[in-house]
């Protein structure tokens, strides 16, 4: 596993329950601001889904990943709602209220 993936997993494990971060935000926090897409690739290959809470990473507009690797978009939504994350009427996470301020 590459260093980038390890850094992504370590950062994502810091997102508290009830908060979300965007792919771009994680990329910036690990020092690779132009690599949001690669954050997604890393999370898709998450070797420890119960330990690294990849469900807490969403698109910058609060949209969920249609290809969420661990059960699909509905499962990601269910996991976030179970943590108290609320959604806007159009189905996006309310980023103003629930975005993690790292």
Can you characterise this structure?
With 102 residues, this protein is mainly alpha-helical. It has a single domain (3-98), classed as Orthogonal Bundle (Arc Repressor Mutant, subunit A), CATH 1.10.10. Helix content is 40%, strand content 4%. It has five helices and two strands. The protein has helices at 3-12, 23-29, 36-44, 72-82, 95-98, and strands at 21-22, 57-58. It has a two-stranded parallel ribbon. Helix 2 (23-29) packs across helix 3. The termini are far apart. The mean pLDDT is 93.
Q: What topology, given as strand order, has the largest sheet? A: 1-2
Estimated helix fraction = 40-55%
**What CATH architecture do you see?**
Orthogonal Bundle
Global Rg: 12 Å
Pattern of helices and strands: HEHHEHH
Q: Find the CATH superfamily.
A: Winged helix-like DNA-binding domain superfamily/Winged helix DNA-binding domain
What's the CATH class label?
A: Mainly Alpha
Q: How would you characterize the largest beta sheet?
A: 2 strands, parallel
Catalogue the unreliable spans. none
How many domains, as an integer?
1
Number of discrete helical segments: 5
Please tally the β strands and state the result: 2
CATH topology name, in short, is Arc Repressor Mutant, subunit A
- Separation of termini? 25 Å
Tell me the β content: under 5%
- Taking all residues together, what is the mean pLDDT? 93
Shape: globular
**Protein structure class:** mainly alpha
